[in-house]
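Hi team,

As requested, here is the filled-out complex form for the phenylalanine run. I kept the field names the same as last time so the parser does not choke. Let me know if anything looks off before we queue the next batch.

— J.
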Amino acid sequence: MDLAGLTRELHALRDEAVAVAAGAATTDELGAHELDYLGKKGRLTVVLRGIGALPAEDRPKVGAVANEVQAAIRLAFEDARSTLRTRELAIRLAAEAVDVTTPGRPLRRGSLHPIIETAARICEIFGQFGFVVHEGPEVEDDLTNFQMLNIPPDHPSRDLWDTLYVDVENHLLRTHTSPGQIRVMHSTKPPIRALLPGRCFRYEAIDASHASEFFQVEGLMVDEGTTMGDLRGLLDQFAHAMYGAGKRTRFRPGYYPFTEPSVAFDVECLVCGGSGCPACSRTGWMTILGAGMVHPVVLQYGGIDPERYQGFAFGMGVERIANLRHGVGDLRLYMENDLRFLEQFR
Ligand code: PHE
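And here is what came back:
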């Protein structure tokens, strides 16, 4: 082949390659075509083999044409590649686009059980008066749950607590948090300001106001010169923090073997404000806890000298405190784990 023929063939190859590059649909396809024209065994190489057959003086001229053609083909492929990349990116972006108007998937958020939350609130209020949380065991011994609290084995006051016994001699499920008083007195020197939240157990027929498992928070203060007035002032502060400033309160005589004197602490009816309604049995008052001055015998069992120290104690049912706070009328709701009930306390 002569110079003119070879040049024509190179130009034809260029034109074809440029058209093929522009027509490729994807970058993959484009890459395959590029190899086909410019690769080591590509069509340009094949055409250039013809140079050897030309006279020596024509070879540089064909070389120049060949360089031009090669550059033109390269350029055509580069252009095509950049166009295809832009288009492919746009397609991918469209396919992977996040629809910001799609409604989110709800996160199932947990929350504290209303009883636990109420116990925490009680501890927080007394915590502001320097009371520190202690814990006692749920399986107690008879000595601590009863005898050291001035409740001897045959004492009729044991009838106040319908006890669940366990298979270990002299052990039972604590019927109240009061044994914690003894444990704190054994582990801490006065002055003592202790809070004992915990689960308690009684053998009860379950109904709207009785449960076999329930929570109490016990309080104990022991110091020199502690008086009933201190108890009253503290409980007033508690009632006001829990149920609202200015709520009227009262002490009523009560009976517990481990306190003397003993009282019931009432707050004005939260439903009628004191005028009398079915919620307070027309008395105008609601009892929220039991309390009293720690019996000297109990101080002695706790290893504390009753001549030098006085103390008061109080104990409240957390479910009752929560009922009054939230207007719940049935204890069983707390144990049923029905989310329709629990989710109202978030
Ligand atoms: N332990 C008593 C009860 O379960 C409550 C109480 C505690 C009363 C402390 C007086 C002092 O009913």
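Two things worth flagging: The chain is about 40% helix and 20% strand. The radius of gyration is 45 Å.

Thanks,
J.
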